Amino acid sequence: MKLRHFWSIVAVVFVVIMMATQSVSANRLEANKALVRTALEEVFVNKNLDAAEQFYGDVYIQNNPNIPDGREAMVGYFSQIFQSFPDYAPNIDLMMAEDDLVMVYLTWKGTHTGEPFLGVASSGTPVVTKTSDVFRVRDGKIVEHWDVVDRTGMLVPLGLMTIQQTQTAK
């Protein structure tokens, strides 16, 4: 009888530990999502590029071939974008997290009212960019980033890209 009681206690302890672990894990996922959400809001919506230091790690790996590694390189890239599109900002369409990764699907909108962009003079043209971004969070900072970018809604309206429509055979 004592052995049965022992195993009952072990089972209860195991369940309590599993529930606590899941709770801590869920809290960590929510904290990681909150960090990414706040970073997007402060750095990109509010255009406070100096705040990047608060959200991005000292070592920041950028897996986008157009932007070098490092927080400063990312800040420099967006500084140039914001000079051409002062109101360019993301909206979070979807966000999810797993382990130390946060994925967001973003719609960026802006208007070309600033400096020339890729040789195109300021035009007042509205633009849209869609991105799927994955951020790795470690010790409360964003330390790595991957993205897939659809710039069609930026490049076509600015006349920098054309889309040929094909007709189907009748």
What does this structure look like?
This protein is an alpha+beta fold and 170 residues long. It has a single domain, classed as Roll (Nuclear Transport Factor 2, Chain: A), CATH 3.10.450.50. 39% of the residues lie in helices and 30% in strands. The protein has a five-stranded mixed beta sheet with strand order 1-5-4-3-2. Strand 4 and strand 5 form a beta hairpin. The termini are far apart.
Largest sheet: 5 strands, mixed
Could you please say which CATH topology applies here? Nuclear Transport Factor 2, Chain: A
Measured by DSSP, the beta-strand proportion falls in 25-35%
Total of domains = 1
Q: Any chance you could write out the topology, listing elements then pairs?
A:
Blueprint: H1 2-45, H2 52-55, E1 56-62, H3 71-84, E2 89-98, E3 101-111, E4 126-138, E5 141-150, H4 152-155
Parallel strand pairs: 1-5
Antiparallel strand pairs: 2-3, 3-4, 4-5
